[in-house]
Predict the 3D structure of the following.
Amino acid sequence: MPEPAFLFGQFVGGLTAAMFLFMIAAGLSLIFGVLRILNFAHGSFYMFGAYLAWQFMRWLGPGTEYFWLAAIGAATGVAMIGVAIERLLLCRLYRREELYQLLFTYGFVLILADIAKIVWGTQQLSVSRPPSLSGSFEILGTTVPHYNLFIILLGPSIALALWLLMHRTGVGRLIRAAVLDREMLGALGANVGGLYTIMFGVGSFLAGLGGALVTPVKSIVPGMDVEVIVEVFIIVVIGGLGSLWGTFLGAFVFGQVLAFGILIMPRFSIFSVFALMAIILIWRPWGLLGRPLSR
Amino acid sequence: MKRRIFLVAASSFAMAVSFGAMAADPIKVGFPMILSGPGALFGEPALKGAQMYVEEVNAKGGVLGRKIQLISRDTKGNADEAVRVVRELILREDVNFIVGTLTSAEGPAVSPIAKENKIVFVAPITKTDQLTAPANLHPYVFRSASTTTIEGRTAAEIVAKWPVTRVATISPDYAYGQDVTKAFVEHLKKIKPGVEIVDQQWPKLGEADYTPFINAQLAKRPEAVFSSLWGGHFVTFAKQAKPLNYFQAINNNFIGAGEAASIESTKSMGADYPVGIWGNSYDVFDWPDGPQSHKDYIARLKKFTNEEHPSSWPITGYIAMQFLTAAIAKAGSIDSDKVSAAMKDISVDTPLGKMTMRAKDHQANHGQFWGKTKRDPKYPFAVIENVTRIDPAPFMD
């Protein structure tokens, strides 16, 4: 039996990974829940968040806590890109078949990857952890970096904020109404197009924020867009597309299965995640906390 | 009569022109390389090295009185794409030789195409032993790169001198990672039988989160670790390992194959680099004990690439082109069979010293730069101290 400190270390590691992925998956799930569009380019937004964070750090210079400015700036920048894409292009496709929408967002994966290569080249880039969070705690005999703890706390905060937005604000009520019956809501005089733009912006912001916040623990390289979109898809499939708490649960399960999977099957930990996804797809095709699609 | 003279003159003129054109026709060398995606970070400088050598040779009149023309193609880091572009280079561009490919998947995939078309193929970077293993060897495949055997065994020579017995490994789970780790473990056990391999972690290639692997490894309490995580994979791994006090727990007894100490990695990590660990690199721009030819090469490279601290990768393309050009000159022909014969046991004065292409396995004795990393106030990134260049000759068989 492994030592408790080690098991705790695996748990914390899995939780950190899960909260990073939750931030990104929440945006994808949110956009799907409201707009009914599966945005393949969500991973590209995440990648742009990372590159923009690096770029802002370059512009701001070596200030002590500029990382936070850079992260917020990057996420806002990505949200603006997302809003522009939705308002100028994507909104023309809502009445088309889903296949066209999928092809459109996939096209943007390729376009954004090429733009990133033209602007930032192919070099691997790196951002340092902000000095305020560069230390670490000893908890139960395990080293937990401050930054990881911050991410672990940020995940549930974002979940709660999104829940409050959806269930305690006027905009949230309209959004929930749009999910149920967008034609009816439009007929009642609400600006459905504006709602869609807001949601696409919020989803993009989360992807950009995830990308920016991941830079202190990962290298920024071309290809990180496709890498993350696969993981995020698995999470939303496990949890249920469009369900906020389902996404949270999916991310948690994903992180823990990966962390503890390597104890049981050291070379096939990724296999356990795919196996889990397959079982859930057969048993509950709409995910753990999702609802069967009704149209 | 006049007409006949005119015809003779015209036809001899035409012949002269066509002969002249033939003599001036460049020798075409196809250069399949990763020029897009994450691998382009390494493929592009490798191509630069080849281009620099070609420019130098052509400035001196070329080889056999003919200029060399490089035709590069993007393999996108994909073995199928590499095969496709090599076929296209041979069939449509009519290239005389192939120099290139990067990964250990691309090289072995392209080799049979070279065999099928009887075109000499020089691999500048691919390190897997499989490329020139007896079962895969044929008259047209040569490797100027180092191998996984040389890389793993020289690392074992270094670790054997450390006062450690509990050794662990962490490597990406694919051909290169497995081959180099196996070479390291086998050689270490042979030269230091008291060593115990306490843990082996195999994250998948491109793993995003190494934390579970790092924790699992630390739980086994190793005293030293061998890794073959390369490029951006090493950067991600080190950024996650450092705050977990991983390098501290093993007293910096960490040796990173896969060019963990290359300028590409140290530069991108800046202050985050785990200074004090050991690593290797294809080249170092500051090699005080190196030969004059290396210092000259670095000076030319700085000028050619306009970089103050040039990449460690151009040397791979440069040396491969040196071997090919020397073999063409020795063969006195661009005929594949003659060049293949000339390539055997040919010696070349590379910027890193003399290298020989062994006849028996078509393998150059390309050694390894190893060293411990340190901070140098002259540079904003970590560099290798006491650069050690290990002669591969004792470790090749």
Q: What stands out?
A: The first strand of chain A starts at residue 136 and ends at 139. The beta strands of chain A are 136-139, 142-145. Chain A touches chain B at residues 2-3, 6, 9-10, 13-14, 16-17, 117, 122-126, 128-129, 134, 136, 142-143, 145, 147-148, 216-219, 221-223, 227-228, 231, 258-260, 262-263, 266-267, 269-270 (CB under 8 Å). Chain A has a mean pLDDT of 89.
